[in-house]
Amino acid sequence: MPRPSSLTRRELIALAGVGAGILILGEGVLASEAMSGPASLARAGSSESCDSTEAGVSENPKAAASERSPEGAAASPEEVADSAAKASMSLEDLPWNLRLVNKDHPLDEDFPLPDLEEIIDGYAVDVRIRDDLAALLKAARKAGHDPVVCSAFRSHDRQRELYRARVSQSKDEGKRGQEAKDDAAFWVAPPYASEHEAGLAVDLVDGDYQQLDERQEETATQKWLMKHCAKYGFILRYPTDKSAITGIGYEPWHYRYVGKEAAFAIAESGLCFEEWIEKYLDQGNA
Ligand SMILES: [Zn+2]
């Protein structure tokens, strides 16, 4: 079963150094976010903010590339089902492209940082999804749209920073203690619980409307992306009618890579990723 690439201790230490750089850059970015727009975090209901902490990564996007996983291709559902038929399968056994990351299933603290490769303007993603993402963006542009990468890989520190900022907003809105944390977590995943930290998610907005709110779904770019993303291995991860299951509010801009076959299967099923994975594992274990 494919496993995420493992890093040596030395590489982890080196990457920790990169992370420190991200944190410093992140503070500068926060300042620019506040200046550059109606600070997405301040909007009621809005979740993530466009960020460019990835700029810190871009200085050395291939820092961990020396021990890149040989299993570059996304495992298809059929391949996994075949394996599943041979042995009981659990979430931990799923291939990298089907890895479930949410509040109930956060990344382990020792989960290796993904091998990153820049996609555009200092934004990096897991190298295994880069080409499909580039193809998606290219196809959207060819169709006359203007997709803008608004967020990609985030360090744990950056995720923590965004989460804490959202908790502060919830407190400003009168919520207290756990209530404030729960409210914040509906919009911004706590550290280790975001797919952005795994390098498997990207936030895409319309160049003419770069706001992270529900109106994003009305843009021509977003309509095109929702219709065509599966062809490139992506799913709209937090659909409007699935918040009770995903635990995350509607995000018509957050796309998660799962591989092409799984993306088609999920789109066809009408299920959200949590539901589909559960059904998929049940079938595999049957
Ligand atoms: Zn996102």
TrEMBL record:
Region annotation (Disordered) ranges: 36-86
Record-linked PROSITE patterns: TAT
InterPro entries for this protein: DD-CPase-like, TAT_signal, VanY-like_core_dom, VanY/YodJ_core_dom, Zn_M74/Hedgehog-like
D-alanyl-D-alanine carboxypeptidase-like core domain segment(s): 126-260
Transmembrane spans: none
GO aspect biological process, one term: proteolysis
Domain of life, source organism: Bacteria
A GO MF term: peptidase activity
Protein name as annotated: D-alanyl-D-alanine carboxypeptidase-like core domain-containing protein
